[in-house]
Design goal:
The complex is a heterodimer of chains A (245) and B (632). Chain A has helices spanning 25-38, 82-89, 112-115, 131-143, 195-202, and strands at residues 8-16, 55-57, 66-76, 97-104, 116-124, 148-151, 159-162, 167-174, 179-188, 191-192, 210-218. By secondary structure, chain A is α+β, with helices and mostly antiparallel strands. Chain B starts with a helix and ends in a 19-residue tail after the last helix. Classes of the chains: A alpha+beta (245), B alpha/beta (632).
Chain lengths: 245, 632
Amino acid sequence: MSEPNAPCRLRVVYSHGPQLQYISHLDLIRVFERAMRRARLPLAYTQGFNARPRISMAAPLPVGMAGEQELADFYLTETVSPEEFRSRLAPQLPPGLAILSVEEVPRQGPSLASLVRAARYRAELPAGCPLDEVQQRIDRLLQEAALPRTRRAKKGRPTDYDLRPLIQELTAEPGAEGPVVRMTLTALPGATGRPEEVLDALGYPPTEAAIVREEIILAPHAEAPVEEAEQLSDDSGDFAGEDAP
Amino acid sequence: MAHAELRKRAGAPRVQLNAELLLPQSKPARYTGGEWNARQKDWDAAEVRLAMAYPDIYDVGMSNLGFQILYEIANDIPDVLCDRVYAPWVDMEGAMRRQGVPLYGLESRRPLAQFDIIGFQLPYELNMTNVLNMLDLAGIPILAAQRGEEHPLVIAGGSGAYHPEPMADFIDAFAIGDGEEVLVEMLDVYRAWRRRPHRFRRQLLEELARLEGVYVPAFYRPQYDRAGRYLGLQPIHPDAPERVCRRVVERLPLAPVRPVVPYISIVHDRAMVEIQRGCTQGCRFCQAGIIYRPVRERSAEEICRLSQQLIDHTGYEELGLLSLSSADHSQIVEIIRRLKDQFSDRPLSLSLPSLRVDSFSVELANMIQERRRSGLTFAPEAGSQRLRDVINKKVRAEDLFQAAEAAFQSGWLRIKLYFMIGLPTETVEDVRAIGELVREVLEIGRRHVGRRAQVAVSAATFVPKPHTPFQWMPMVAEDTLAEHIAVLQDVTRVKGIHLSWHAPVTSLLEAALSRGDRRLGQVIYRAWQLGAKFDAWEEQFRPAAWEQAFAEAGLHPDDFARRPLDYADALPWEHIDAGVSKAFLWAEYQRALRGETLSDCREVCHGCGIRGRFKLLACPLLAEEPAEERPA
């Protein structure tokens, strides 16, 4: 990703609101690309036959989820200060996308995706679920030594994996309507926990909960990046049927 | 706003969209709106609320330039709120029906039944059942006669409104012709009617019927003889004119520069600027070539200015220069040169659909595509010179070969050729000629780029269309069609040539629906009841439903699609005046049968009638003529 035409790399923290929760990861990149073009910001493109915008997301946000502190790196063909970038791009973003912060990062540094370690989620359950029942189910689940599950992909073969080691933290608390489940799940290549799977393991239908990704947790600065080569499962995002009519 | 308080503002609340409804859908963002440039107007403050409806999925409807034009025009009126709605795909429709979610406007999320007006765009015969399905999903009575003061007014426009009879039972008023002005007038009529203390739907229809270009089917009664032959329409109301003349805007209005930019990828995902409306080529099969007359060019100056605003406001990476025949624009080279210069500071690709078959068009394609020359498309339409003369497609085999030569020479690898099968007077020999033509094109390609040369052949079944010289012609017989397709498959079975063709079974329905009279209303209604929708989508098409619907009405598609008509016969679309005279169309039909061509009407006026009908001072209306001052 260190092609010569991109002397400037900016790391953007942004929120991805529920208005946009039904667009796919690829759609989101196009939204940013067109906003960059409207803002007349010098977005870099990959070289070659099919030039693609050089915007790298830390981790694709699954369709149906909002994100409070999402992360993306934007590569530019000219140096633009973080302040100018923010002030020019912000008015061109559709409702639902808002920039929280922008900083310049070394352009030769490791890719953003390789720095991701975990993610924190919040799931708001419907008003009818009693909090003590949620708590009991969490306690029981955390006592399990293993949680064998099968991930059914929209395309490709289903894969078997163990959800238990991917759960770093799992708690419940009262919320505005129903109880709120908070969780921190590992997000490494080939080992990404998904909040819907946790809810399902708890016995709550995921479509009835509003799930928000609160934060993407990156490696501390000193730590070496994780190679992206072995992408076994679960980190593909959810490209909702691009080829379906 | 005193009247506003009088109106019943309450009613069903906004539709709540939830994950259970949306998440399982193939592309849920089709149903959530809120795209860039979507207009979010205040529901309560709006005096007239219009829902623009497109009877096909979002991906298709969002690609329609006319829809975007009217959306912007209506929303620019301060007290008008214009929302959008597209046909939900079958997965979403099923979920909506199971959960009891009514069809809603994307921006307002209000149920369609709460709008004042539903305005359908009718682009094509094979989505007529979707109009019924959308009304049903909205909980609005499907039959116009069953709608009362409490229901929205249902209007329709677009090229499908030029033969409105099959849809006459379902639509309150059709707008014929260019929509830019007549839509605004219809909204004015509606607003004035709405302000009255006592309102009757009939008054509204009467006032609409007095507008130029508006056809209110309830004010006409069709007549048939004992044998069931259509005899014509009888106006049964003093406000109903015998013929409804289409609307024409003499100069192209400034086009929208803030079109809605989709989140998901759609059929034509690009900015669109209409460089010309109408076409002077005079192909006899082409309905657009008649109903968009006269040709109206937009000046290079204006195209460049609009393009700049369009790209600035959308961020699109592609700009399409739209017209029925791009290479005919008198300033086309200058337009391309200036646009390339104007956007040289950023990656932007230009696209130029509807190229003529000649080497000049290849030069244009080379100008806009400097790298990545993958595929070029031409439409010779028929294989033999004889048949091309019949349809007045002014292309010689040499033109095609020269174009192919120029294309392969400049690095294009694939040429796509459009043909029609079942054209009037077509013989097996004409079909064989297609084979000779495409094999020669492939040979030319091989000489230049070797085995990488490819020729794609796309064949569509010819459907005789109203308002064209072939409107009197029956559709070709089933067995002839099958024979000709078999021959075509045979003569194109060559490595390097790829043939695709459309299923003739939908073409028969298309022909029946485009040439039918008001009796088809009950057939469409019944077919929809039996599950017909998305008829243009091959995997959704239900031939058995249509068969049963025709049979129950005591009718057959052939009664409409294959009935030969004579000059004296009443045509079910004759009360719609497209501006071109019947005498001209008939003369063209006779010339076709004699194999005589007619030159491009930029060269000489052939007196089609449009000039006198609309008192046009100049025709075609070219861009370089001194234009009066126009407001920016």
